[in-house]
Design goal:
0% strand, mainly alpha, 76% helix, 2 domains
């Protein structure tokens, strides 16, 4: 029977070299991916800030105060159903028109999308 230890050492050295190559390639791809991600996030942050500034200018042009803008931003973070549930819990029974008015004030029906009144 022949001694195969030398062959196994050569094979192990080859596997180790391929392993190191793979780790190096992985690290290069990961760094490139992270850099691309950082670039995209930075660009989106810059764009968000610019659009937010333009929105503030337009809100001021239409006579909407900065405190009202902040209230509307907060309102958009909460789903309308949750907003209504919270209003009902805080104020008790309210009719549809009262709820509609509260939601309208909070900015849920901006840009002319106000819910029509049901009173005739």
């Amino acid at each position: 029977m022949r001694d195969i230890r030398h062959d196994l050492r050569e094979r192990l050295a080859g596997i180790s070299a391929r392993y190191l190559d793979e780790m190096y390639e992985y690290e290069q791809k990961r760094e490139a991916l992270e850099e691309g991600h950082r670039t995209t996030i930075d660009a989106l942050d810059s764009e968000r800030i610019a659009v937010d500034q333009l929105l503030k200018i337009e809100e001021a042009r239409h006579g909407i105060s900065s405190s009202e803008v902040e209230i509307r931003k907060t309102a958009r973070l909460v789903p309308l159903a949750t907003f209504i549930e919270t209003k009902l819990h805080a104020h008790g029974s309210m009719d549809k028109d009262q709820l509609r008015a509260e939601a309208n004030l909070a900015g849920y029906f901006l840009d002319g999308n106000a819910a029509p009144s049901t009173r005739r």
